[in-house]
Amino acid sequence: MRIRRLMAVAAALFLLASITIGSTAAFAVEPIPSMPAAYYGQVFVGSHGGQPAADGATVEVYLEGDTAPRGTSMQVEDGWYGGPGGFDPKYQVDGTSSDIGKEVIFKVNGVEAETFNASGAPVAVTFDPTGEPVQVDLVIPAARLTLVRPENLNAAPYTAADAVFEWQSDLALDPDAAVTATFSDGTNSVDGAVYFSADAMNFTVQPKVDLLPGTAYTLTVSGLKDAAGNPVNLEPVEFTTAPAGPAAQVSGVEPAVVLPGGTITVSGQNFRAGAKLVIFDAQNQVARECTASVADENTLTCVVPADLAAGLYTINVYNVGDERPVSGAVALTVAAAEVPKLDLLKGSAGSQPATDLKTGDVFRVQVPVTVARDVPNALIVVRLDDPDGKPLLAFMEGPLDAGRAVNFGAGFTLPEKPGTYAARAYVWDGWDTMNPVAAAQEISFAVR
Questions:
Q1: 9: confidence class by pLDDT, cuts 50, 70, 90
Q2: If you classify domain 145-240 with CATH, what class do you get?
């Protein structure tokens, strides 16, 4: 009997040990469930404290590494998900002890939101269930709009068919939103028609009737929303319509090479009183503007600014209030030196003018020149051409120092070929570029 009791006790102890050991193994595999974390807060578009998100926007919460949201999603109402009151709902997120310290990710309509505390300071949220609800405000990006048409707000088209204002958005817009557009010149208003592209990433506004030419307008668009229903703010656009009539056109300029402070005469069409001449540099950036003196609709004059650097430019003419792209820009060279003066002298070192030259004679071309501005690699070239216009020989000197007078001379022996010869002088900014820094000069002479 005693043996049976001992066996029963041993069996019971073995069973108890087995249960204890089995239970210990189970607790090592399954993390201990923790109490849920609770969140609530405001939802803004663009910036904290800015435009509240639209009612009905869906808020979801993920923990780091999750592919599906935790808890039950909430909808934004009056700019809040949940609320601070004791009886207001909260977004509850369940987790286990292994989730503590993980990043908490908030998404609004599937877009990850930035997180802020109630004071508007950015905050990184980690899973830390304390039993107390935490206010986490959310900010989602606002749609960014870029005006892509018209290119020139200073000379916008004024007819209803051509006055197209187009914006591009980085977020899809709501094509069913009640959008209104108005063009106002301060006295009268014109309603605008609004159209959305098929993908709702672009929209255009056109006046329903023609605008007035040469008039300043303000275009106001309101009621825009993104695809999630969030309001999209668009600042008013100020522009001026192009004047009626054709734009100015430029066809030529004299002289084509001019010193700073010199006067040029521009020829073309459709010049009107008050027109301005615009000088563009080699990068097509505006270098200078000057008010022109209009002689008639085909001719005007202008003084080149005295402080304009030597170089190659193009010029165009714009009538008052007309910034439309114009055709026919012409080249203008602003010189760094006076036009060189050529003298023909007898002999290789003589000082008397060469008035009667015959084949086989020796003569010299004398060219005084001063480069008035610093063109580091400026040089002078003197060339002799035969009666057929073919270059025979050329001499060069450079670089020329700015402000230093150079009396350059080049000696030539005339070949056994009578006719009319030409001596030419060039002042260039360098041998590689050969851009003129002074107008070329030529002298023709007969050889018997």
A1: very low
A2: mainly beta
Q: CA geometry: angle at 353 spanning 351 and 358, to 5°?
A: 115
Q: Tokens 């209104």 belong to which residue?
A: 180
Higher pLDDT, residue 140 or 18 = 140
| pLDDT tens sequence across 324-370 | 666 678 999 888 888 778 889 988 777 788 888 999 999 999 988 88
Return the domain boundaries, the chain. 1-30, 37-140, 145-240, 249-334, 343-447
Tell the residue number behind the tokens 């100015």, with chain if given.
248
Topology of domain 343-447, CATH: Immunoglobulin-like (2.60.40)
Rg (CA), the chain: 42
What does the mean pLDDT of the chain come to? Answer: 87
- What stretches of 245-329 adopt beta strand conformation (E)? 249-254, 257-258, 263-269, 276-280, 286-291, 293-296, 299-303, 311-318
User: Could you tell me if 377 and 362 are in contact, meaning their C-beta atoms sit under 8 angstroms apart?
Assistant: no
The number of residues in the chain equals 448
Q: Does the global pTM surpass 0.85? A: no
| Residues β-bridged to residue 413 | 362
pLDDT in tens, 265-275: 999 998 888 88
- CA triplet 172, 177, 179: central angle to 5 degrees? 105
Given the candidates 2.60.40.1220, 1.10.150.120, 3.40.630.30, 3.40.50.150, the CATH classification of the domain at 249-334 is 2.60.40.1220
